[in-house]
Amino acid sequence: MVVWERPEPPSRPVPSPLSRERIVRAAVELADADGLAAVSLRKVATVLDVGPMRLYGYIAGKEELLDLMVDAVHAGILPTGDGWRAALRSLAETTRSVVHQHEWLADLLGGRPQLGPHALATGEAVVAALGDVDVDDVMPVVAAVNAYVIGAVRREIAERRAERATGMDEQRWQATLGPYLERTFATGRFPALATVVRDAAHSDADQTFRIGLDFLLDGIAVRLSG
Predict the structure, then answer these.
(1) What are the Cα distances from residue 121, in Å, to 79, 89, 91, 208?
(2) Calpha distance 36→152 (Å, rounded)
(3) What 8-state DSSP symbol labels residue 2?
(4) Cα separation of 152 and 213, whole Å?
(5) Sign of the CA dihedral 213, 219, 223, 226?
(6) CA spacing 20 to 30 A to 77: which of 91, 135, 149, 179?
(7) Residue 174 has pLDDT above 80, yes or no
(8) Are the C-beta atoms of 127 and 191 separated by less than 8 Å?
């Protein structure tokens, strides 16, 4: 029986009462503060002031804990809007927002579908909004948007982590490598790239995300109307 269907142990009078909700909340707070490396059953038990073995009455191990954590934060990913385009845009933007609130989520998105109740509610809202789309196209369309979002947010989180690790924000990094690029472009070996770097508009992360999403949604619209 999967963790979302398995009943919790009966409550009993103890100094520190437990529940899956309390365990998951403590784990999410640890991950938010110090990343997934900070999450272990022993550390969660310490935060909750209980013995680690008590947690096994509620979860089978760390993998179940991670599944529960991912599903808990999926509560913030609830697409809204009329029609498939609005729903997919909302899915993309709310997913990105939740990942920026919980950096560790970027490391756990993708792979097998999330099947917890909050993740299923997200999926239901999206698929319901795609009611006019051919049933064979629904999952490829949703998968395309999810792939775009996961790639984009992982790049953004990687940039944020690199900034913390090096102490160099994007402007300082560009200033440091700018002279090298100028010398390299002056050789004439990379004319197309030099033109884009020098002449194209340089959008911030929010603009870049929205522009890329517009390209994707425009392409989906053409395909669905064909």
Answers:
(1) 10, 17, 12, 28
(2) 20
(3) -
(4) 10
(5) positive
(6) 135
(7) no
(8) no
**Does the pLDDT value for residue 182 go beyond 70?**
yes
pLDDT at position 28, please?
A: 98
Does an H or E element contain 47, and which?
A: helix 41-48
Q: Six-digit token pair at 199?
A: 């002449």
Structural tokens at position 222: 């053409």
Tokens 């110090």 identify what position?
34
Instruction: Give the amino acid at 52.
Output: P
Can you tell me which residue has the tokens 């949604």? 217
**Enclosing H/E stretch for 45:** helix 41-48
Distance between alpha carbon 184 and the CA centroid of its chain, in Å? 36
Amino acid at 67: D
8 Å CB contact between 75 and 116: no
pLDDT, tens digit (0-9, with 9 covering 90-100), for 20-70: 999 999 999 999 999 999 999 999 999 999 999 999 989 999 999 999 999
Residue 144 and residue 84 in contact, taking contact as beta carbons nearer than 8 Å: no
pTM of the model: 0.88
**Cα separation, 194 vs 178, whole angstroms:** 12
* Tokens 């979002």, residue located: 149
Which tokens hold the place of 202? 């340089």
